[in-house]
Amino acid sequence: GAxxxxxxxxxxxxxxxxxxIECRSLDFQATTMFWYxxxxxxxxxxxxxxxxxxxxxxxxxxxxxxxxxxxxSLTLSTLTVTSAHPEDSSFYICxxxxxxxxxxxxxxxxxxxxx
Amino acid sequence: xxNVEQHPSTLSVQEGDSAVIKCxxxxxxxxxxxxxxxxxGKRPQLIIDIRSNVGEKKDQRIAVTLNKTAKHFSLxxxxxxxxxxxxxxxxxxxxxxxxxxxxxxxxLLVSP
Lengths: 115, 112
Fold this sequence. Notes:
- The structure holds 2 protein chains of 2 kinds.
- By secondary structure, chain A is mostly beta strands.
- Chain A is built from no helices and 11 strands.
- In chain A, strands 2, 4, 5, 6, 9, 10 and 11 form a 7-stranded mixed sheet that branches. In chain A, strands 1-3-8-7 form a 4-stranded antiparallel sheet, with no helix packed on it.
- In chain B, strands 2, 4, 5, 9, 10 and 11 form a 6-stranded mixed sheet that branches.
- Chain A binds chain B through residues 32, 34, 42-46, 49, 91, 93, 95, 97, 102-104, 106-109, 111, and chain B through 32, 34, 41-44, 46, 49, 89, 98-105.
């Protein structure tokens, strides 16, 4: 079935540095990818919708200059957390919609810890 | 925008009992309702889904019912097992859109 590969699975970084998270669709073309953030014991909150070849659409309250999204190809979307702070520590998950069935597949998630 | 409410937030059952989780949605244009199981630190896994042209769907011990008039849908797990313990999320997608809106989740604990 359709698979989305997400890397890295875990990352620890220092405050003020930037971290890039990659999501690749392995066996299908994902014109749209979604980026979620999940804090402990909470639900998945949509951060932005990433469209291949165009600017991402950010949800209200999500800083687009802090969370840079690039979707330069049909198989790769990246999320860069810039100038990370401890409050950015969270579980970040990407998702893509199946082109035929309309269902959704998720990446394995990235546990970001900012120290 | 769409709003999805999910209840209960926690549910404890004995092994072999049934578990029911309920969700309501606000957008009458919603037409796709998946349920996900998420274990700690892992990705959500689709366990069952239903579209608005169907009232009920079953897959072995798992079933989902949809009431479009009342705008609610429910997950039913029968003969629960300890490995069913996880957090379950309902979600919805509105026709013409592609974004999933999630409920807040239900932590299900099945005791042996």
